[in-house]
Design a protein that fits this description.
Elements (H helix, E strand, L loop, with lengths): L1 H27 L5 H30 L19
Length: 82
């Protein structure tokens, strides 16, 4: 389920949409020339990748087995008295 969620974020909407939005933002402000294209593209890619990693970390964090039964940490073992 988590893999499907992360794939949907990446492939369907978020990363591509943010890349396009970042690229278009500079075109709107008139910064659209051969001189700045590489800088703008790198910014757009890093912006999209950063947001994807941030959004993908949430379902991964929820799905990670950090607690055991009853919400106790995995390394917690009840003490037994002799």
């Amino acid at each position: 389920m988590v893999v499907i969620y992360i794939a949907a974020l990446l492939a369907l909407a978020l990363a591509l949409h943010i890349f396009h939005a970042s690229w278009s933002m500079f075109q709107t402000f008139g910064v659209n020339s051969r001189r700045w294209n590489l800088v703008i593209r790198r910014f757009a890619v890093s912006d999209a990748a950063g947001l994807f990693v941030g959004f993908a970390s949430l379902p991964l964090g929820v799905a990670a087995p950090t607690t055991g039964p009853g919400g106790l940490p995995l390394d917690h073992r009840p003490r037994t008295h002799p």
